[in-house]
Every structure is written in C-alpha cells, then in structure tokens.
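User: I'm preparing a small set of examples for a lab meeting where we compare how different chains pack in three dimensions. I only have the primary sequence for this one, and I'd like the structure in token form so I can line it up with the others. Please keep the answer compact; I'll paste it straight into my notes.
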Amino acid sequence: MSINLSDRILSLSESETIAFSRMSRELIEQGHDVISLSLGEPDFHTPEFIKEAAKQAIDDNFTSYPPVPGYPELRKAISMKFKRDNDLDYSPEQIVVSTGAKQSLANVVLSLAGPGDEVILLAPYWVSYKEIVKLAEATPVVVSAGVEQDYKITPEQLEAAITDKTKLILFNSPSNPTGSVYTEEEVDAIGAVIRKYPEVMVISDEIYELFNFQSKNTSLAKCEGLYDQVITVNGVSKAFAMTGWRIGYIGAPLEIAKACTKMQGQFTSGASGISQKAAQAAVEAPPSVVDDMKAAFIRRRQLVIDALQEIDGFVINEPQGAFYVFPNIEALLDRSFRGEKIDTAYKLCMYLLNEAHVATVPGEAFGAPECMRISYAASDAELVEAMRRIKKAIEQLER
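Assistant: Understood. Below is the structure token output for the 399-residue chain.
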C-alpha cells in the first residue's frame, strides 16, 4: 500500500537532538556502553516538594479537563513569579500554560506568522525554531554569530536583517545550544533596535533563566518601550528538573494570549492537571531552591572546558549559562578515519557515537555547521570518561 504523506510533514526535519538520543539508546540495547551528552535534560530528579504537590493533586482529584490556558491558581502563581523574578507585570489573563515550552513557542509562531512573513532566527538557534517557522509557512531569516563573537549577534546585524516583511524575531538567552548569555547592556542594545520597528513582535525564550552563571537574567520585555512587542516564554522543565512533566508558559499582550488559547484549544486543550499543580509548587518556590543544581552545572562546565582545551581541533568559548558547550570544530573537518573523510559536523558526531560511544549533536541542526553541541547535564564521572573517549577518538583521526 502506498501512502502519500503531506508536503508539510515531508519538509519537516527530524530533531537531531532526539535522533542522536534515539541512536544512543539503540546502541545501548545492543550492549554498548554509551555516554549520552545529546539531550538537554538535567540529570537530577524533580525536587521532593514538587512531587509531594503532585501526589496531593491526585488525592484532591485534579483529574478532569483543566481550563485550556491553565488553572487560575497556577496562572496567578506565574504572574507572581514574573513580578518577583523578572519585574514584569503580566496579569493571569495574559498567561497561557501549555504542554511544555516547545508548545508555547509553536502556539505563538502559528498565531503570528504565515506565508509571506519573515521570522528572524539568531544562529546558533535551538533546533526546533526553524522547523516551527516552516510549519507556519513563514520564511526563516538567519542571522549568525560565531565563536569569535561569543555566539551573540550585534545590534547592527539584527537591524540589517529587518525588512518590511519581518513579522517576528526569536531571541534566546541563556542560549541553547551555545550557553551564551546576553548581558543587561547587550539586551538593552538589542531592544533599542527592535523598538524602532513597532510592528515587529519578539519571542524571548527564557527557559534557562535560572542557569545564568553571571548574574540575574535580564528579560527582553523589561527594555524601555518594548513590553507590548514581547512574548516571554518560560517553563519548569530545565530549572526544576521537570522535563517529563511537560509544563511551559507564556506572558504576552492579552490579544496574543487569547490567540494562543484559541490555537491550543484545537490542538491539545489544557496541559495535565497533575503537572500543573506540581508546576505551581515550583514557581511559587524561591529561585534559590535550584542553587545546588546550578553549582553542579558550574563545576561540570569547568570540567568539560578544561578537558576540551586539551583536545586538538576544538575552539571554545566560556558559556555563561544553560548546560552546554558549543565548540567550533572546523579544524577537524579535513580529517579521515580508515579512509573515510570526516568533512561535516554530522559525520564527526556519528564517528564519536560509533567509535567512542559518546553521543553529541552536530551543529548543522542549530544553523552552525562548523560546530557541535555537548551537554554537560551528566555526572562528573560520566563527563570525565566521555572527555577521555573523545580525546582518544580525535587522536585516531588521520590528517
């Protein structure tokens, strides 16, 4: 039987992070000892007080369909969190809770962008940004910054990319995949450019805000005169080790919040009620509850940086947030192994997976084909062993 899939799904790329995670699992099932540094997932367990809130929610029978934009008490808690942590005034009516920040992003893009619109992506960008824009049938416009710029674009680069077709900009700090963080001054400078174009909206993806190793994170919506142009996206997956609970949320101008609720109402309706009650406990807690996790990531970052600096061919910056390093590996892309050329980041990552049994993610997925992403959301022992394996594998390459 021949099945004709839609052009929409045929044009959509598989997530490389998920693909390399899948290949890792397949090797593990074959009996190989694989260290996976591919997924952006904290290796910690969800804090006990959050799990207790979920157990109480089950006992209290939060098991019926919840409101599409989220329980009122959770939206009120998120409103409080925005004010407490970000000095942003979003009323509960301006907040929409979704099944993960990925759905939050998709809701916004699909509500705002369409055929003929341009959406600016700051590369390196998170793997799903481009595919979500493609689903909206809008045109991705990529603005790139390399390791020499700490992977952060300049205001001049952004302004040069804005046209009369620009509908939306996707901004992410701290960044996945690079770990780079825009300082308060840099955020203000980017904001000053955007303010010149009041018809352009911006998604500020702040999912890693509590893993900013420099200082308190700066929200783009705080820039003078920019509040009505910004949709702030956040969630509980990263900061509270709640990836499987699937809760993300937005704070947005009311009209956009209503549009996202309408969109979500036709796709998934409300997110899991049990997860929402767990998320309420998380956002009501002070940010300091994740300090131990943050300290572990800072320690692991240094461990990985020190190890990569000893490997020939890796050029790295010092990421100031999230839990990734994003080395430039151009110097390695003229080498081979057993006669086979390794001339792309994808081939290098496949080589490391199959020969060193370490899973990473190629930079092609993030709009940076000269790089690769390494997650250090793993134990110290796993990171030490992974770096040893990578070093040995790179030394085996032929020039």
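A couple of notes for your slides: The chain has two domains: 7-45+290-395, 64-286. The first strand starts at residue 35 and ends at 36.

User: Perfect, thanks.
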